[in-house]
Amino acid sequence: MRYSFLIPFATPSIRVSLLLLVASLGTGFLNAASTPEEKLKEMGIELPEPSKSIANYVGATRSGNVIYLSGHLPRRSDGSLVTGQLDEGLSVEEGYGAARLSAIALLATLKAEIGELSKVKKVLKVFGMVNAADSFTSHSQVINGCSDLLAEVFGERGRHARAASGFSSLPLGAAVEVEMIVEVE
User: Fold this and answer.
1) Is this structure's pTM higher than 0.85?
2) Are 143 and 74 in contact (CB under 8 A)?
3) Given this model, what pLDDT does residue 33 score?
């Protein structure tokens, strides 16, 4: 057992308490991923190479301990872009998946910028843009695709302030675009 080093230094009653505590936490606690990269691997997610900027900007810039990540589009593993408009051909579920892909792209750029995702102290803010028809009102459910992934990967450090807004079009006809602000060590 990983925590057996504690037992020789404890009294018999404390040993029993420690063993009961560890047992009550279950094997998920003992086998929990210890880094965001391990969590991503456990989830079956491989970070792609960060995509190149399509105009005159950089994917990330740093000021002190804060990283500002430019808007990232939803690219599939084959490099193709998820395009279309919500409520005009794309469902909320498809938009959610697109926002999740944008989050993966953001994490790839962030990792390239800081080396290890374990250096993330806090995801501060996410701004999600949804390519939506005028009648569409479920922007927040779409951008949950990004927010849910960040919470899965970072736990409480991944919970953030957020805005989700609708736009009549986005670059290259993308379904969503997401930008992020992160505090790092």
Assistant:
1) no
2) no
3) 57
Angle (CA) 127-101-117 rounded to 5° is 75
**Spatial separation of the C-alpha atoms in residues 70 and 30, rounded to whole Å:** 37
Are 109 and 71 a contacting pair, CB within 8 Å? no
Give me the residues paired with residue 166 across strands.
130
Average pLDDT over residues 48-52: 91
Distance, in Å, from the CA atom of 31 to the CA atom of 139, rounded to the nearest integer, reads 36
H-only helix segments in 75-135:
92-114
What's the CA gap between 50 and 72, in Å, rounded? 10
Would you give the end-to-end CA distance of the chain in angstroms? 31
Task: Give 116-174 pLDDT, tens digit per residue.
Answer: 999 999 999 999 999 999 999 999 999 999 999 999 999 999 999 999 999 999 999 99
Query: In 3D, which of 168, 176, 167, 150 has the Cα closest to residue 94?
Result: 176
Name the amino acid, one letter, at 127: F
Q: Which two tokens stand for residue 171?
A: 């670059």
Domains in the chain: boundaries? 4-32, 40-184
Task: Mention the CATH class of domain 40-184.
Answer: alpha beta
Distance CA 18, CA 29 (A): 14
